[in-house]
Amino acid sequence: MNAPTVKPRWGTTLLWFLGFFFLSMLPLYAQKPYAPQDTVDVIRNLLMVSDLPYAAFAPVFHIATLLLAGLILWRPGKYGRLLAGYIGANYLIMIATCTMGATEKYGFVVMTGSLAMCAILGILWLAAAFRNKLHAAFRKPTLLEWGLILLALPAFWGPYSIVGGAVRPLFDPLRLLTSPDYGMMFCFTTPVFLMGLILCYPSVPAFSLRITAINGIIYALFNLSHWFSPDFWWMGFLHLPLTVISLYALLYPWIFAFSENRKTGMHPVGK
Fold first, then answer.
1. Cα 184 to Cα 199: distance, rounded to the nearest angstrom
2. pTM for the full model?
3. CB 83 within 8 A of CB 68
4. Which pLDDT does position 271 carry in this prediction?
5. CA-to-CA distance for 241 and 153, rounded, in angstroms?
6. Residue 74 and residue 51: Cα distance in Å, rounded?
7. Residue 241 per-residue DSSP state
8. Residue 253 phi, psi dihedral angles, 5° rounding
9. How confident is the model over 224-228, as a mean pLDDT?
10. d(Cα 257, Cα 238) in Å, to the nearest integer?
11. Residue 145 — φ and ψ, nearest 5°?
12. Residue 42 near residue 34 (C-beta atoms within 8 A)
Protein backbone atom coordinates (compact mmCIF):
# COMPACT_ATOMS: atom_id res chain seq x y z
CA MET A 1 0.00 0.00 0.00
CA ASN A 2 1.55 3.26 -1.10
CA ALA A 3 0.94 6.46 0.85
CA PRO A 4 1.68 10.04 -0.13
CA THR A 5 4.59 11.81 1.46
CA VAL A 6 2.74 13.85 4.05
CA LYS A 7 4.05 15.66 7.07
CA PRO A 8 1.83 17.32 9.70
CA ARG A 9 2.06 21.01 10.46
CA TRP A 10 3.88 22.11 13.60
CA GLY A 11 1.07 24.46 14.61
CA THR A 12 -1.60 21.75 14.46
CA THR A 13 0.61 19.35 16.37
CA LEU A 14 1.22 21.98 19.07
CA LEU A 15 -2.52 22.59 19.43
CA TRP A 16 -3.19 18.88 19.88
CA PHE A 17 -0.35 18.70 22.40
CA LEU A 18 -1.80 21.57 24.43
CA GLY A 19 -5.29 20.11 24.24
CA PHE A 20 -4.22 16.73 25.60
CA PHE A 21 -1.92 18.36 28.14
CA PHE A 22 -4.85 20.26 29.64
CA LEU A 23 -6.94 17.08 29.50
CA SER A 24 -4.24 15.27 31.48
CA MET A 25 -4.42 17.99 34.14
CA LEU A 26 -8.02 17.20 35.07
CA PRO A 27 -8.24 16.76 38.86
CA LEU A 28 -7.98 13.25 40.26
CA TYR A 29 -10.91 11.74 42.09
CA ALA A 30 -9.94 10.28 45.47
CA GLN A 31 -12.26 8.79 48.06
CA LYS A 32 -10.18 10.38 50.83
CA PRO A 33 -9.27 14.09 50.55
CA TYR A 34 -5.68 15.00 49.66
CA ALA A 35 -3.70 18.21 49.40
CA PRO A 36 -2.82 19.40 45.86
CA GLN A 37 0.89 19.00 46.61
CA ASP A 38 0.26 15.29 47.27
CA THR A 39 -1.03 14.61 43.75
CA VAL A 40 2.13 12.75 42.70
CA ASP A 41 1.89 10.57 45.80
CA VAL A 42 -1.75 9.76 45.02
CA ILE A 43 -0.82 8.70 41.48
CA ARG A 44 2.09 6.57 42.71
CA ASN A 45 -0.12 4.84 45.25
CA LEU A 46 -2.70 4.13 42.56
CA LEU A 47 -0.24 2.81 39.97
CA MET A 48 1.32 0.45 42.51
CA VAL A 49 -2.01 -1.36 42.97
CA SER A 50 -4.28 -0.66 39.98
CA ASP A 51 -3.18 -3.67 37.93
CA LEU A 52 -2.92 -6.16 40.82
CA PRO A 53 -6.49 -7.53 40.44
CA TYR A 54 -5.71 -8.38 36.81
CA ALA A 55 -2.14 -9.72 37.22
CA ALA A 56 -3.18 -13.27 36.32
CA PHE A 57 -4.05 -12.07 32.81
CA ALA A 58 -0.58 -10.60 32.17
CA PRO A 59 0.67 -13.49 29.96
CA VAL A 60 -2.31 -12.96 27.64
CA PHE A 61 -1.02 -9.54 26.53
CA HIS A 62 2.59 -10.70 26.10
CA ILE A 63 1.68 -13.83 24.13
CA ALA A 64 -0.95 -12.03 22.02
CA THR A 65 1.57 -9.35 21.05
CA LEU A 66 4.21 -11.91 20.09
CA LEU A 67 1.69 -13.93 18.07
CA LEU A 68 0.45 -10.82 16.28
CA ALA A 69 4.01 -9.74 15.44
CA GLY A 70 4.67 -13.26 14.14
CA LEU A 71 1.55 -13.17 11.96
CA ILE A 72 2.59 -9.82 10.46
CA LEU A 73 6.07 -11.16 9.68
CA TRP A 74 4.54 -14.30 8.17
CA ARG A 75 1.89 -12.58 6.06
CA PRO A 76 2.81 -8.89 5.65
CA GLY A 77 -0.13 -6.66 4.84
CA LYS A 78 -2.80 -9.13 5.96
CA TYR A 79 -3.32 -8.25 9.60
CA GLY A 80 -3.50 -4.46 9.74
CA ARG A 81 -7.13 -4.42 10.84
CA LEU A 82 -6.36 -6.94 13.57
CA LEU A 83 -3.38 -4.89 14.80
CA ALA A 84 -5.35 -1.63 14.91
CA GLY A 85 -8.23 -3.37 16.68
CA TYR A 86 -5.86 -4.95 19.20
CA ILE A 87 -4.29 -1.56 19.99
CA GLY A 88 -7.70 0.06 20.38
CA ALA A 89 -9.09 -2.70 22.59
CA ASN A 90 -5.94 -2.64 24.73
CA TYR A 91 -6.30 1.09 25.43
CA LEU A 92 -9.92 0.57 26.47
CA ILE A 93 -8.83 -2.24 28.81
CA MET A 94 -6.34 0.18 30.38
CA ILE A 95 -9.24 2.28 31.64
CA ALA A 96 -9.75 -0.42 34.26
CA THR A 97 -6.15 -1.54 34.74
CA CYS A 98 -4.27 1.75 35.08
CA THR A 99 -6.63 4.69 35.59
CA MET A 100 -8.56 3.53 38.67
CA GLY A 101 -8.12 1.37 41.73
CA ALA A 102 -8.46 0.98 45.48
CA THR A 103 -5.48 2.34 47.42
CA GLU A 104 -4.83 1.89 51.13
CA LYS A 105 -3.87 5.52 51.70
CA TYR A 106 -6.43 7.42 49.60
CA GLY A 107 -9.25 4.93 49.08
CA PHE A 108 -10.66 4.52 45.59
CA VAL A 109 -8.80 6.76 43.12
CA VAL A 110 -9.55 7.67 39.49
CA MET A 111 -7.10 9.49 37.20
CA THR A 112 -9.76 11.37 35.28
CA GLY A 113 -7.50 12.75 32.57
CA SER A 114 -5.83 9.40 31.94
CA LEU A 115 -9.21 7.69 31.75
CA ALA A 116 -10.38 10.16 29.09
CA MET A 117 -7.10 9.80 27.19
CA CYS A 118 -7.27 5.98 27.11
CA ALA A 119 -10.90 6.16 25.96
CA ILE A 120 -9.99 8.54 23.13
CA LEU A 121 -7.04 6.42 21.99
CA GLY A 122 -9.14 3.27 22.15
CA ILE A 123 -11.86 4.81 19.99
CA LEU A 124 -9.32 6.24 17.52
CA TRP A 125 -7.64 2.88 16.95
CA LEU A 126 -10.90 0.93 16.79
CA ALA A 127 -12.11 3.44 14.18
CA ALA A 128 -8.87 2.87 12.24
CA ALA A 129 -9.56 -0.88 12.40
CA PHE A 130 -13.15 -0.41 11.21
CA ARG A 131 -11.96 1.74 8.30
CA ASN A 132 -9.03 -0.62 7.60
CA LYS A 133 -6.52 2.26 7.74
CA LEU A 134 -3.48 0.26 8.88
CA HIS A 135 -1.36 -1.78 6.47
CA ALA A 136 0.73 -3.95 8.78
CA ALA A 137 4.00 -4.81 7.06
CA PHE A 138 7.27 -4.30 8.90
CA ARG A 139 10.08 -2.72 6.91
CA LYS A 140 13.75 -3.32 7.68
CA PRO A 141 14.75 -1.13 10.67
CA THR A 142 17.56 1.38 10.40
CA LEU A 143 20.52 1.11 12.77
CA LEU A 144 18.92 3.76 15.01
CA GLU A 145 15.65 1.86 15.01
CA TRP A 146 17.37 -1.37 16.04
CA GLY A 147 18.56 0.61 19.06
CA LEU A 148 14.99 1.77 19.73
CA ILE A 149 13.74 -1.82 19.49
CA LEU A 150 16.25 -2.79 22.18
CA LEU A 151 15.11 0.23 24.21
CA ALA A 152 11.50 -1.01 23.95
CA LEU A 153 12.48 -4.35 25.52
CA PRO A 154 12.39 -3.07 29.15
CA ALA A 155 8.86 -1.76 28.53
CA PHE A 156 7.75 -5.23 27.41
CA TRP A 157 9.75 -6.87 30.21
CA GLY A 158 9.07 -4.63 33.21
CA PRO A 159 12.23 -5.72 35.09
CA TYR A 160 11.50 -4.34 38.56
CA SER A 161 10.08 -5.22 41.95
CA ILE A 162 8.66 -3.13 44.79
CA VAL A 163 10.51 -3.64 48.07
CA GLY A 164 9.35 -1.67 51.09
CA GLY A 165 7.63 0.89 48.88
CA ALA A 166 10.74 1.41 46.72
CA VAL A 167 11.23 0.32 43.12
CA ARG A 168 14.26 -1.91 42.57
CA PRO A 169 15.67 -3.69 39.47
CA LEU A 170 14.59 -7.32 39.03
CA PHE A 171 15.93 -9.01 35.89
CA ASP A 172 13.73 -12.07 36.08
CA PRO A 173 13.33 -13.68 32.61
CA LEU A 174 9.86 -14.91 33.58
CA ARG A 175 8.66 -11.31 33.62
CA LEU A 176 9.02 -11.28 29.84
CA LEU A 177 5.70 -13.16 29.94
CA THR A 178 4.33 -12.38 33.38
CA SER A 179 4.94 -8.65 33.96
CA PRO A 180 1.52 -7.09 34.63
CA ASP A 181 2.73 -3.72 33.35
CA TYR A 182 2.88 -4.49 29.63
CA GLY A 183 -0.65 -4.49 28.26
CA MET A 184 -2.12 -2.95 31.41
CA MET A 185 -0.08 0.22 31.95
CA PHE A 186 -0.03 3.01 29.38
CA CYS A 187 3.61 3.92 29.99
CA PHE A 188 4.89 0.40 29.39
CA THR A 189 2.58 -0.60 26.54
CA THR A 190 2.70 2.51 24.35
CA PRO A 191 6.43 2.35 23.42
CA VAL A 192 5.97 -1.18 22.05
CA PHE A 193 2.89 -0.18 20.04
CA LEU A 194 4.63 2.92 18.67
CA MET A 195 7.73 0.95 17.69
CA GLY A 196 5.64 -1.46 15.65
CA LEU A 197 3.73 1.39 14.00
CA ILE A 198 6.95 3.21 13.11
CA LEU A 199 8.13 0.09 11.27
CA CYS A 200 4.85 0.05 9.31
CA TYR A 201 5.04 3.74 8.34
CA PRO A 202 3.80 5.38 6.11
CA SER A 203 0.91 2.94 5.74
CA VAL A 204 -0.54 3.78 9.15
CA PRO A 205 -3.33 6.15 10.24
CA ALA A 206 -1.18 9.26 10.66
CA PHE A 207 -3.58 11.09 12.97
CA SER A 208 -3.91 8.14 15.36
CA LEU A 209 -0.12 7.70 15.40
CA ARG A 210 0.39 11.41 16.13
CA ILE A 211 -2.15 11.52 18.97
CA THR A 212 -0.69 8.38 20.56
CA ALA A 213 2.84 9.81 20.39
CA ILE A 214 1.71 13.18 21.81
CA ASN A 215 0.17 11.47 24.84
CA GLY A 216 3.27 9.33 25.24
CA ILE A 217 5.41 12.47 25.49
CA ILE A 218 3.02 14.16 27.93
CA TYR A 219 2.99 11.21 30.33
CA ALA A 220 6.73 10.73 29.95
CA LEU A 221 7.22 14.34 31.09
CA PHE A 222 5.02 13.71 34.12
CA ASN A 223 7.23 10.79 35.10
CA LEU A 224 10.46 12.81 35.07
CA SER A 225 9.93 13.26 38.81
CA HIS A 226 10.94 9.62 39.34
CA TRP A 227 14.56 10.50 38.57
CA PHE A 228 14.75 12.77 41.61
CA SER A 229 13.48 10.22 44.13
CA PRO A 230 15.96 7.69 45.59
CA ASP A 231 13.13 5.16 45.89
CA PHE A 232 11.87 5.58 42.30
CA TRP A 233 14.94 6.31 40.13
CA TRP A 234 14.69 2.88 38.50
CA MET A 235 11.12 3.64 37.48
CA GLY A 236 12.50 6.80 35.87
CA PHE A 237 14.87 4.64 33.83
CA LEU A 238 12.00 2.35 32.83
CA HIS A 239 10.19 5.40 31.39
CA LEU A 240 13.02 6.10 28.95
CA PRO A 241 11.38 3.90 26.27
CA LEU A 242 8.18 5.96 26.50
CA THR A 243 10.12 9.22 26.35
CA VAL A 244 12.46 8.44 23.47
CA ILE A 245 10.19 6.29 21.29
CA SER A 246 7.21 8.66 21.64
CA LEU A 247 9.38 11.59 20.58
CA TYR A 248 10.78 9.64 17.64
CA ALA A 249 7.27 8.57 16.59
CA LEU A 250 6.03 12.17 16.71
CA LEU A 251 8.99 13.42 14.65
CA TYR A 252 9.07 10.47 12.26
CA PRO A 253 6.61 11.87 9.67
CA TRP A 254 8.98 14.84 9.21
CA ILE A 255 12.00 12.51 9.10
CA PHE A 256 10.26 10.30 6.53
CA ALA A 257 9.09 13.26 4.44
CA PHE A 258 12.60 14.75 4.43
CA SER A 259 14.07 11.41 3.35
CA GLU A 260 11.51 10.98 0.55
CA ASN A 261 12.00 14.58 -0.54
CA ARG A 262 15.73 14.00 -0.93
CA LYS A 263 15.06 10.86 -2.98
CA THR A 264 12.49 12.40 -5.33
CA GLY A 265 13.18 16.12 -5.22
CA MET A 266 9.48 16.70 -4.46
CA HIS A 267 8.18 18.94 -1.68
CA PRO A 268 6.17 17.13 1.04
CA VAL A 269 2.69 18.37 1.74
CA GLY A 270 1.57 19.78 5.08
CA LYS A 271 -1.55 18.34 6.63
1. 23
2. 0.93
3. yes
4. 46
5. 8
6. 33
7. H
8. -55, -35
9. 88
10. 31
11. -70, -30
12. yes
